[in-house]
What does this fold into?
Amino acid sequence: MQRQRLALTTMNSSSPIRLLHKKERTWVTRDATTGEISDLLSIRIVGVTGQCTPSACREEKEAFGIGNQELKDAESEAHWHRLLLDMDGNSFSGRFYRLLRTNSVVLKQTVFQEWHDDRLVPWVHFVPISTSFEELPEVTRFLAKTDEGRSIAHRIASESKEWARQALREIDLQLVWFRLLLEYGRLENGHDV
It folds into this structure.
């Protein structure tokens, strides 16, 4: 329900959020609404998985205006956005590595531990977002609307793309698969292959 909660919050331009502004030498929070950053957000639900009762699925489709395929961005279109949000669904996200290969900054919200956790550094290769999404409006505003934020965003996008180029090579995936088959063969045969 994380995706639905986020979509409902951002669809309502009067949803309360907290933004930061600089006051002398410090940053202070101020109350705002999602309407102040609505030009930076394009979040919507474009399908229902069917993991709900028929009546609940109908209500969800009505709440999100689902059924209009024009709302769905083509995968290639997403790569033109400066910031891309990746979040878990029923399990870990299958889009994360593809998004790292783009020229965009990946904002990552997850609760799962994955093999890359020790290799990818927050704020170097991606921007972490909590499950509360409390910081999402300010992070989005900072990275998109300030000179310093745009500079940081450019650096993060470059670093993540380079990491993906080096660490997610097809030959490495083939090697892992080969090693997995060797180990499986060893276990099945009871001796070294």
Helices lie at 2-11, 54-64, 75-78, 96-100, 136-145, 147-167, 170-189. The chain has one domain: 2-189. The mean pLDDT is 87. The chain has seven helices and five strands.
